[in-house]
Fold these 4 entries.
Entry 1:
Amino acid sequence: MRLAELSERSGVSTATIKYYLREGLLTPGRQINATTAEYDEEHLRRLRLVRAMIQVGRVPVATVREVLRHVDDDSLGRTIRLGAALWALPQVPEPDEEDEHIRAAHREVDQLLETLGWSNARALVTISPAYRSLVVAIATFRRLGYDWDPELNLAYARLMHQAAVLDLDFVETHPSEAEKVETAVAGAIFVEPMLQALHRLAQEEESARRYGFE
Amino acid sequence: MRLAELSERSGVSTATIKYYLREGLLTPGRQINATTAEYDEEHLRRLRLVRAMIQVGRVPVATVREVLRHVDDDSLGRTIRLGAALWALPQVPEPDEEDEHIRAAHREVDQLLETLGWSNARALVTISPAYRSLVVAIATFRRLGYDWDPELNLAYARLMHQAAVLDLDFVETHPSEAEKVETAVAGAIFVEPMLQALHRLAQEEESARRYGFE
DNA sequence: ACCCTTGGGAAGTGCCACTATCCAAGCATC
DNA sequence: GATGCTTGGATAGTGGCACTTCCCAAGGGT
């Protein structure tokens, strides 16, 4: 198919597709002659993934490029590849390691991982952005003066571990290795907004149950 | 305290504070004379909340204003107030109701709420942005061709309901009514990045457990 | 009286995700 | 084979957002 058809079938304007091509989010089509290029179903699939990452996952364009680079990198093992792709995802600003709240949050998270027995995660601690995000989130909460029981973190962590098990079980059902990594990334990216939406819905539901609409 | 001190204690530049004042994210200080205004601890607390919403919660400035407007609106009941505040939070673009994937997702979510027995959430269906976000997330996943068992949604929803119960239990521990709403909002906003970070950490952990670092 | 500080407002900055315009090279039709 | 529409690639421009810089008049300390 040509650019115009790719645009039609994806619902993305040709101008935007050209932009994505320029930014390296899509591989160029097969050049037929100086003015025509041919795209296939794979391009369409990739384009939809990109669009979804940007619009639903709110992933910046530069980050999408990084994530895809890792997804397509056959030289990496699965965990590393998934990790690499996830690590490229949007991050909170670099925490100020001098800050007392940050240091306390570090200790708190380390303790949490210890209690959970997440030894693998602990091994990745120094480099995982997820770890950093968690530290920043906890430090922020503490800085605002909320007195948050570490038990609560533990409970949340156990819930999210259950979610992760569901995620990976789902990925297991997918046959090819390449597809597995893509599915894992898609899962990581799209399950998050879903969990968020479910979380808010559940809050509304539970709040209404407890307090009615008073 | 004066603007300079407010800036110092919050770590936010005076220029930015002035910007927030202009945007209505902070109430003006008590004017002492033409060149001096006095701010109090409440301003500091509010400023930290605003900063955290913007930096950690990635909430747009205009949205922060909306959320705070609801938090401060004493005329509303708690559920409505919390709901109103949460409804102002970042939303996915309006779904195209004509689209087949969207319509299917609607049916899927309705079925899900039915099965869960979330009758309150069902009552809010037509207006809740969380519901809309969920529909868009599911439709996107389906459009990408993932064959996702509705059972899985159910499992995720139950997990998030447990999280919501934890959230509200935590809110219960806070004394004043006004503080409860603020805590609920803070919880909704800050628990989300935390859950997200925990989710990614858990994925890394679980992936490493299953596949090692192959 | 002098000068530094203060708060307020207007205008500017940098980044980002597009989007509009231009252009030369096809292809289609007459 | 001339004409005119379409195509893909390149370049520059747009609009929104979160600040940030600049300027100013009015205080207040010494």
Note: Residues 2-4, 14, 18, 21-22, 29, 31, 34-37 of chain A lie near DNA strand D (CB under 10 Å from a C1').
Entry 2:
Amino acid sequence: MAAKSRPKSDAPDVSDRVSRIREGVTAAILEHRLLPGTKLGEDEIGEIYGASRTLVRTALQQLAHEGIVNIEKNRGAFVARPTPADAREVFEARRLIEPTIVDHAVDAVSPAWINRLQQHLAEEREAELRGDARASVRLSGEFHRLIAEMSGHSIYLGFLKELIARSSLIILLYRRHDTPACGTDHHAEIVTAIRKRDKQAARAQMLSHLNEIEAELFLKDPAADELRLADVLGA
Amino acid sequence: MAAKSRPKSDAPDVSDRVSRIREGVTAAILEHRLLPGTKLGEDEIGEIYGASRTLVRTALQQLAHEGIVNIEKNRGAFVARPTPADAREVFEARRLIEPTIVDHAVDAVSPAWINRLQQHLAEEREAELRGDARASVRLSGEFHRLIAEMSGHSIYLGFLKELIARSSLIILLYRRHDTPACGTDHHAEIVTAIRKRDKQAARAQMLSHLNEIEAELFLKDPAADELRLADVLGA
DNA sequence: TGGGCGAAGATTGTATAAAGTTTCGCCTGT
DNA sequence: ACAGGCGAAACTTTATACAATCTTCGCCCA
């Protein structure tokens, strides 16, 4: 009767103190409250969450593995600053993976999932309406994660979590206009295609959605150091 | 001869004590010297590498993130035991990603790379010839990693590292015959296609290679708990 | 006045010790 | 004899202390 110990394949982010730290920092980064390059001191974070450096360090290492934090030896952890080359890689990977993910999402469609998706669309519209850019950015990423969860593929889900987190940083760094408005409509169209069980349309919508996001970026080749300098001088 | 030359943006695996532990354990798992389900005690490993539990713990957490180690709360770390469902996900992901990777490898082809690939093929043939199953398994995985490195895409490389490590465990658990011989020829054909800069052929060879590997697996649906029990009873 | 040297301060890396949890053996009671 | 529970040992988890390294700021000298 030892059948109670494994209800889920992997649930690393529940009721853990380390996970609370990781999710708190992740949320701050994804909502653009922590900017790329920001130093994440261990004592600093530890004091905020009332935790010891041991736990903070564990959380930061996990974030480093996810690619949204860089750990420099003997210097500490910093919010990652993706280069234009990184950005192109991330979006190429998303263009490869996400159409397949929506395929599987269509296979897994159910009234409950449709409900969840439309509830999410409502949240996105509301955040957009009240001009809450932070919530918009976060919800936009969560939409894609939701579809990955729907697909039921834990591997794709893990990969996509990384890609979404990095995308958030990339968009913050390289977006041309400050108009995150166009995304919502695409999301709605994707949900419609899923509801209709139309794989081809779903794939196409997802692909064009990703293409539009990337098209709004300004990915110049020179080293990011110049960008950093420009930012500082501009501010 | 690829020991310590990597002054790139992120080089998490050089001259680090944690990295030595991680790579040592990884090699042991990938060469099937540590079997799925084996407990990895912190003291045990720490004593082997002359390191403190702090470092061992860090290494094990990284391996857990890569999916080849499971950490159960308050119980310790164990070599992962992928389920048949996991196996199907892993190979589906590989079928999706690796054809794209060889595409990029063809773009990046150069005499130096061709040399490196053929040297690797020679190593594989030699290991096969002398019946060194451990080296064969390791080299077979390294071939795919080599092509990912050749592609120059760090994201794909990171993803594929995970997939390869998991594949090694999967093959160990679910392979029908004990004949890893067929792989080498495929690898040679892939290299030939790359050398000819024939993307279509390279993609096709890679895909059929992956399909054959998966076809040799026996992925039955029942829960892995039964498999575990059967193994124990058999031994 | 500008640059280089050096010590103090701060921060990270590592080890060790304290605390909590699980596991397994043993003992008792029926 | 066997089921159930108590308790000690082993291990993981967390916290703290120590060592190593980097940064910063002041001082001295050209």
Note: Chain A touches chain B through 24 residues (CB under 8 Å).
Entry 3:
Amino acid sequence: MSTQTRRERERAERERAIIAAARDLALAEGWDAVTTRRLAAEIEYSQPVLYSHFKGKDAIMAAVAVEGFAELATALVAARASAANPRQAVADVAAAYTTFAEQRPALYDAMFTLAVDLPFATQGVPTDLARGFAELAEAVRPAAGDDDLEAVTETFWSGLHGLVTLMRSGRLRRADHDRRLAVLVNRFSR
Amino acid sequence: MSTQTRRERERAERERAIIAAARDLALAEGWDAVTTRRLAAEIEYSQPVLYSHFKGKDAIMAAVAVEGFAELATALVAARASAANPRQAVADVAAAYTTFAEQRPALYDAMFTLAVDLPFATQGVPTDLARGFAELAEAVRPAAGDDDLEAVTETFWSGLHGLVTLMRSGRLRRADHDRRLAVLVNRFSR
DNA sequence: CAGCAACGCTAGCGGTGCTAGGGTTTCGGT
DNA sequence: ACCGAAACCCTAGCACCGCTAGCGTTGCTG
């Protein structure tokens, strides 16, 4: 029994090492730099070992994304908790969201622009993702009015996502980001 | 002179054939299916010919994107022109935008999610892109209030872009699209 | 008609994600 | 204690990618 458990533990550790290596490499040089060969070299095993843990590169990215959901959710919870009033809550949550995307671009990409094989609008949504979404929902709830809260939240989220992706790809001037964010917050407060 | 002009004409035709082939292939099977080899086979020339017309695959995608800007601008102009009132103009323009993205996903990707080497937030923006942006601006102008019109337009655009990309990547339920669109339109009208 | 320049081809480079097959090590039963 | 079996991981390679060097041919020019 002891050797069995040891091997399982080592295997789990190696899996974490793969995810950590992918995450670090992606944060440092972007996802294009994350190749199965470099990943294998990083964990000091051969390429095929990766495939005994994950179905493919997409699955590795998905695993990294799941970690990202936890980070984002934590940031959003903190932002909303420290807000003085409902209006400020929307602003702080929005700022926290875009800051996260700006500071962890590779993580954000894995979560929201790449890696499609994660469950989103279906059952089995990662709990941390649901946590983050709930924070957005609570922030905009006072401003929902007659509209369905879920629809308002999703639309608010889309606005944030659009701002982030268009700015990051050079389609929007970074200098005007605060102004745009203020507009969005304005439209989803009161 | 005659042979010279003939060759230039043939060259121009071949360039158009490359763009058309890339566009058709992308619309039919997505950009992943557009490889330089398939493209070369499609125009019945060898691979290196492509590189005498374009710097690389990205440049070909950029050329396709430019054509897309014209289509989108036309759709937006038509939508706004036929609207009965300002409120309806925002709704129609928004619907036209998302419909375009939904019906021409590959085109939309080339324009707004891939191909970064196009000028956007700088000088030299493709005129058709500016035309489309201007239509969005005119639509939301009545609802800008004290906010800077450009910032409002960019934010509205971001909302549309976010809705489209999150839905297309499976992050938002397609069934609720109209509801979300209505929310966005609501927040950028009146 | 000779020389030259433009042109488009074949072949190949270095890279990608992924997999088949075989050795080696470790385990379990006699 | 040993032997068969199973688990494990590595080497080598497949098919593909974007892109380019170098050559042969074609067709124009003086």
Note: Chain B touches chain A through 35 residues (CB under 8 Å).
Entry 4:
Amino acid sequence: MHDAAKVAAAMTKRARSDQEDDGEVPEGYDVSRFERPSVAVDVALLTVDEGALRTLLLRRDAAPYRGRWALPGGFVGMDEALDDAAARVIEQKTGIRRVFLEQLYTFGAPKRDPRTRVITVAHYALVDPARLAEAREETRVATLEVPWEGETGGPVDAIGADGRALPLAFDHADILGMAVKRVRGKLDYTPIGFQLLPERFTLAGLQRVHETVLGRPLNKDSFRRRMLASGQLEATGDLQTGVDHRPAELYRFARRSAV
Amino acid sequence: MHDAAKVAAAMTKRARSDQEDDGEVPEGYDVSRFERPSVAVDVALLTVDEGALRTLLLRRDAAPYRGRWALPGGFVGMDEALDDAAARVIEQKTGIRRVFLEQLYTFGAPKRDPRTRVITVAHYALVDPARLAEAREETRVATLEVPWEGETGGPVDAIGADGRALPLAFDHADILGMAVKRVRGKLDYTPIGFQLLPERFTLAGLQRVHETVLGRPLNKDSFRRRMLASGQLEATGDLQTGVDHRPAELYRFARRSAV
DNA sequence: AAAATAGTGTCTGTAAGACAATATAAC
DNA sequence: GTTATATTGTCTTACAGACACTATTTT
């Protein structure tokens, strides 16, 4: 018997003690006694393109930090789950649906927004660069420059197409830094890399993605062995085309099969 | 030159473009147009005692979930950082200060609190069991029963001193489950175990803590080698006392030295 | 054939697990 | 001395990194 079920059974057996209720809403209860902060979500939408880690930024056209660059974000609806808010924000700003999306960390320093208290539940998302088209004038895909190694952590810089750093709004350099740190950590033990690739890809392509995210070269032989041994790759039998050398086999990630 | 410094330098060089500001508060700006959720913190205060993973729970004496058991928690002050709120909650409920404390995950399902929208930034903390005395009648240290292996994740059960499951309020079984999952993950590559031990401890004691948290036995020889090779342990030269067999050497964790 | 990368086989070093032998305190 | 655990040493195995070699495509 599952333990959660055990708990439920135990409770029923006790014939619903009078000192306990099941969470019904008491009539007329008032919880609005406290002043409340605003709650937002921000999304670090990461991609790997041309050997660089990239992210989508929007130019702010209102105060505060007007003219600076910010992650797509927005306030959480009163009846909206946090993940749903993040997915909505992505779709509104880019039109992209169905991305890999995960909660990252909640940033709540009292003065992180100079206007008022805004607590933001930061998320990160991973997308195949082919899906990430620059939608609007005020949208830009910037290259991330990570000034630390491994999973040290810390803020990162966003570099525009002209090679100059884009000044970031709020604590978004920290959010991006934490997103990079998290993805690096996950890459070691999770099939997360394929979110950044088209459905079919070569082992060398997968290795390049890993190397770009991790910011360091990987051993080819070992990478190959590890990936094939993981059981998460499925050979398609087809070969790469359009390359001027021996074509590599195309793989796809195995669906999380019903084990 | 550090990259953050580079950014700053680049900005200065551009002589502060007119399309940009530095985040000053515009006069009379109104951000209170939206309805706002309440924001709380909850703390999973974990300890290891007598070979079991334990946590501190409080009996709710008000609706909702009156009579059920809940993590210590409270609303975040309008000018209070999230970590500070969590530390305050711990001190208010237990008197304990200066614990290892880290943000865990933010739970924000719209109906997780039946009264109104409450988003909670869950934290976890690790304490030496000697410091965790049961302070009040309505406070209890419960044993955690983890119905999954490794870092699978999922809710856990809290067992009272009488061996019966304590019914938990809200989504606190999920919060506790995520705390266990996180600590298990961290234990592999972070000096987190010593937070659960007195200052001086034996290698065998440390291994027991690791085994309790991980929920599986560890190889003694390998554990010993790994710990000593990590450079994080410092031999005190003193021996254990009061045992009826050969006493083991006492170690302490090396201060995070100024490398 | 030359160029370029894909893919295979083998060796070596490191670290974990297993097992055995020795050490030392309490009784 | 006996008991119980600490501590050290050695062997085996698994795997990552390194290197050399073969394969296959385009030009």
Note: Residues 38-187 of chain A form a domain with the Nucleoside Triphosphate Pyrophosphohydrolase fold (CATH 3.90.79.10).
